[in-house]
Structure formats: C-alpha cells, structure tokens
Amino acid sequence: MIERIKSKLFSFLKTRWAKTILVFLGVFFLLNFLFPPKINVHYSTIVTDSNGEILHAFLSSDEKWRMFVELKEITPTLRKAILAKEDKYFQYHFGVNPVAICRAVFNNITKKRRTSGASTITMQVVRMLNPEERTYWNKLSEILRAIQLEIFYSKDEILQMYLNLVPYGSNIEGIKSASYLYFQKSPDRLSLAEVTTLVIIPNRPTSLKLGTKNPLIVEERNKRLKTFQAEQLFDNQSINDALREPLLVFRHEAPKNAPHLSLRLKKQFPDEAIIVSSVKKATQAKVEQMVANYVNRTRVMNINNAAVLVINNQTMQVEAYIGSAGFNDNFDGGQVDGVQAVRSPGSALKPILYATAFDKGIITPKNIINDVPTNFNGFEPENFDRKFNGKVSIEFALANSLNIPAVKVVRDLGKSTLIEQLKKADFQTVKKQEKDLGLSIVLGGCGVTLEEMTQLYAAFANEGNWQKVTMLYDKDVKKKPSHTPIISAAASYLITDILAQIKRPDLPNNFDYTYRLPKIAWKTGTSFGRRDAWSIGFNKKYTIGVWVGNFSGEGVPELSGAEIATPLLFQIFNTIDYNTSGEWFHQPNAVVSRQVCAESGDLPSDYCSNKILDYSIKGISHTRKCTHLKKFYVNLSESISYCTQCLPVSGYKEKLYTNLAPELVSFYEQKHILYEKIPTHNPNCTRFFKIANNAPIITNPNNGSEYYISKNDSQQIQLSCQTSNDVKEVYWYLNDRLLQKTLSNKPLFFAPTVGKLKISCTDDKGRSSNIWVIVKEE
Ligand SMILES: [Zn+2]
Ligand SMILES: [Zn+2]
C-alpha cells in the first residue's frame, strides 16, 4: 500500500505541472524569506486612565495623528460596514481576489480606464505601508506582498492594520484618531451614522473634509446607508435612525489631560502606542481644578505654584498627578513637574525620625525632652516661632514640630540611621548628598521630591511597609512581596496616633471649624526662607502630598505648611474621600499601654507620684527607671547638703530634689524661671566626688573648631559651660594645666596660642569634660 502511494507520488513529481508549481512555490518562499513583511508604523502615543479613557495624545514621530486602534474597539457594526464597502470577500480570499482582478484587467482593456475595485483590504494595507507608484510591476509585487501578509497575520490583525492607517485628510490617519478628533469618543462608541461617515471618507479625504463639508458628507453618508439597507446589512430601524442623525462635528484639539504625568510616561515608554496609566480621570480633573483655583487665590501673595500627588494606599497606584497649577502657564514655569522637583522638606521628615527612634526603643511618646537652646557643635537650631518650651513630651515635640528636640533625637539615634532609612525609601537626592548631610537633615537640610515624600508617608498607612508607587495601571495589583519594611507596624501606629491629633498649632489659623475636618493623620513642613510649604496626610485609603511654593525658589513671608499647604490638603481629602467607610487604623498587638512618670516618661521609681499612661512597643521600648528626683541629706535649714561620708552627728534630714540637666538649669537661669536648687555641699567634706552623670557641657568653643589668629592682635576665645544644678564653681584647664576657677555661669576669656588645644572643664564635684580646638596663624 505505502509502496503504491510512494510510486504514484514519485511519478506525479516528474510531471511538468508539478515542477512548475514547485518552482513557483520555491521562488515565493525564497522571496518571502528574503523580504519579510516590513511593518514600520509609528503611532501617536496615547496615555489613558485606568479605565482606558484617553487622557493625553502625542503626535507620532512623523507628525501624524495615528492612534492605535485595539481589536476590542472594532465593533461588529464597524466591521460589517467597512467590509461591505471595501472588501466583501475579505474573510474568504488569500490576500487577493482573483475574480476581481480579472474583472479589473478586463475593464482596463475594454474601457481604457483604471478602476481600483480589484484592491482587497489586504492589498490596500500593503499600499499604505509602502506607498509606491502604480505600475503593473508594483501591482504584481503588491499582490505577492498581500499573500505574504495573509501568511504572517490573521484576518483580524490585517483589518486592524487597515483601520490604523486609513487616511482622513490633513495629518489624521486611522479610524481612532478620526473618531477622537471629530467625535471625541473611542471607535467602539460610534453610532451607525458616525461609523458610515468614517467609512466613506477615506476614498475622498479632501473633498469630504469633516467640519467644512458636513452637508455634502451627510448626502454621501445617506447614499451609503441606503446601499446598506438594500444589502440588508442592518435592520431597518437602525438605518432609519441613522438617516435622521444630524452631523454637527468639527475638528477638536487632541486631549491634553494630566500633562506632566503623560509626558513622563511618554519619555519612559517612547515607543508604546497605548500607555494605560493608573490615574482616575475624574479624580485627576477634580484635583487639577482645585489646584488651579487654589493658586489663583494665593497669587496675590506671590505664591504661584503647587503640586499634588494622590496615592491609593491599597494598590500603591497614583490616582491623580498634578505637576503644577497650570501646564500652559509659561510665566510661572507651568511645565516644571513639581512632583519630581527637588526641594527642601522643612520639618516633614520628622515623623520618620521619631518612628525610627520608637523602633530603636530609645524613646516613647510620653518621654520628656528639653526644648532649650542647645549648641550641637556649632549648630544652634531655633524653633519656627523662635521660642523655647523647656520640658516637653516627644508627642508634643512632634505635633508642634519643635526643632531642638528633633535634632537631639537625630543626634541620639545617629544621623546615619536616619539617612539609612531614607535610602531604604529610595530618596535619590539624599543618596547623592549623603556625605554632606548633618543633623539639620531633619529640619530640611536635604533635597527631596513630593513623590518621595508622599511615598514615604504611604508607608505609615501600610504598617510601615514601604513600596514604590506605580503610575501604570495593573488590575492584578496585589501587595507585592517586594515591599520594604522600614518601620514596624507598632511605630507606624504611634506616629499615626500623634499625627491624627486635632489640638495642634499647625491647623490653619483661619481654619473654619464648621468646615469638615477630614479624619486624617498629617504633618506639615516649611523650608528655610519660607520657600516651600508642605502638607502630607493619609488615612486608610489615600496618601496625599501637597507642595505649594514658587518654582523660581523665591521665598514668601506668608508661606507656611500650616497656613498655605494644609487648607488645600483638607479640600482634596474632603472632595475625593468624603464619607467613605470611616475605617481607621487598629492598634497592633505589639503596642501596649504602661504607666510612666509624667516628669520623665520613664518607668516610675519609688519617688514618682505623678503617673500617666503611655504607649510602648512590647519587647522594644526602653525600661529606664525614672531619676527625676534624687534624695539628698541636708541640714535642718536646708542650706547645706551632705554625703554619706560627712553626715553630721548633730542631725540631718532627707530631702528629694529635682534632678535637672545642666542645659535646663542654664535655661531656667536665663529665663529667670524659679527652680529648687540643691544646697551647697558641706564645705568641710573631704571626699572627692566622682559621679559619671551630669558633667559640665562646654558650650563654647565648639569641639573640633578651628581658630585663626594674627600675630599683631591679641584675640580672645570665650569659655562657657552648662553645669548641673548642684554646681557653684568650675575649673578650666588648657592642655591639662589649670587656667582659672570661675563661677559656673560666668564666661571666661583667654588668649590662645597656636597649635592643638585641649580644653577641659571640671565642676566642683569633680566631674569633667574635654574638647579640642585647633588654633592657626593667619
Ligand atoms: Zn519620675
Ligand atoms: Zn561630703
């Protein structure tokens, strides 16, 4: 059996017919292989919102409006109408229609004129992909190319190519561009009348110009509709409706919404035809309008710009992206993208600082810290209002955005720990500036972007897990395992709890309390020189970052996070998130309540009577015992204190004194605030005191500083210190040689000599500290 088939096949292959066919096929496949189809079409990039609605369209690289039509946009109506008009046998032929070709050739010979009726849609696609002069040779090559296209692509894909390239006059190509620029909708929303209009134009794109030749187009359209009716392509009712539909279109501008985001995505994906962004069109439009209106009101104060980023905390997708108050505002740099601009954060990094300190266990919300003038090695920060508050809680310091406590916490935590946190949260400029950053980083002495800041705050809303935002829509977005834990859920909760408090000074002064205050946690920031106003807030659902200022960098006296940025933040929350579930963050199990001494925030000792409740993190927070009071032995008139060595037999009593830090003593002295002093130690006592705590703090000069002196002048350096409140006198030493004994609160002057100089200060209890300075000759 097999033998018989073999021999038959063999004898067939010997025939001339078979040889001809084989040679033809061989040549075709060789050509096919050597010259594969070239589809080199540049599309207009379209940026859509998360629902696929066009936000923004860009001209293609060859300056055409050529928007890529998706298969789902080719509705049955559109498909039927196109095929009925252009190529009835499209589904059945292999790229060319032999019957039509024969008819065309016959017509050409008998009637001496050319007709184009022989072109299938596939052949038209070939011609549009590769426009060439119409010669018989090119016609043949077109036929071969058409067959080739049918081999490489499905019918749907070929129809899609056709609809992408079909001309509509001027620089408009493809049905989608025509649909948007004239009817302002996507092709799948076109009515039958509109579809028919777009079907008839490509053959006469110049004489049937939409917008200028509408009456003529209606005439032609209705003719075509009648043909459709005769062919029973659509039911009569639809045809009759279409016949009555008026045509009132004209050419519109291409959509230009969300310009900053669209430009950014276009730059990122220059060759994509359709970029589906995560933006919600309605939210974007609302916020855009709000920002524009808001800045219109602040312009009288010379505050000309603002930027806003809205992040959905669950998906970490950006739902609104406003780069400036008006993209077309050339005068105030409207094209600058304020979401990506590098600015100073002011105090807006304080939450991450305190959260990190909570996680390291060094402080809890009710811990007491001294807000008093402090010299951090030459850096002497002031508060926003230039006042000092003395003893304050950490919670109060954060809610009131006090600067000195924040710098102290950076110092205690180590600035590198804070920088590491910011690096984990992908702060690009901080990474670059790392070596130059000092303690002032937490007061805004670094560069950040609104995007980085809003992203950081979203981590508080996500139990401390940081994740990069995405601006592309992903319907399958889940919390990806790639997110980086930067703080614990417990610390996030503590920070959120503080930032959600309503009694705070950074509510806008003119805030109308009858106006809805959204339930959010938020923090403001104002940069040095009042150049930047920040307000960043979050609830369960959204994190919103607001920046207000001038792109020129010009500072304005009225500019502050509380007064200028917060009202806009509240407005946006109230508009996009009003009346949602009202769900709030739950207290994690690791957050526990404990009793602490109100005077220190540490665990109460036997002497502490004023106890309050504080939060702490289980297994993490410190368990320091309070030392706010200290027991002293004093004489009955409380004028002399004793140690165990010199207790007099004549009698004494025990008394508790407040254990004040030297800086606080000096603050009280300066401000003439009364405090109870510890009586002088027994002058007859011979014991040498050596107590580790509360050594004097040399406040001038600064450790490590350099002085330049000239030979002729005898310059002097001032020595000053802060001491514990049981100290009366101090001893100053230069290179371990006694310089002078002075009263502890009196400064001392000396003339330095060239070289490295060790300066020591020892108090009358024997506690001492050293610093080094370098003195050079000019
Ligand atoms: Zn206490
Ligand atoms: Zn003594």
Protein architecture, described:
This protein is α+β, with helices and mostly antiparallel strands. Helices cover 33% and strands 18% of the residues. It has 22 helices and 28 strands. Strand 13 (532-538) and strand 14 form a beta hairpin. The protein is elongated, with a radius of gyration of 40 Å.
Class derived from helix and strand content: alpha+beta
**How can the largest sheet be summarized?**
5 strands, antiparallel
Distance between the termini: 113 Å
What gross morphology would you assign?
A: elongated
Q: Please compute the radius of gyration using only Cα atoms.
A: 40 Å
Mean pLDDT: 87
Number of strands: 28
Task: Indicate the percent of residues in helices.
Answer: 25-40%
Tell me the β content: 15-25%
Low-confidence stretches: none
What spatial order of strands do you see in the largest sheet?
Answer: 7-6-14-13-12
| Small molecules held by this entry | zinc ion
By DSSP (H or I, 4+ residues per run), the number of helices equals: 22
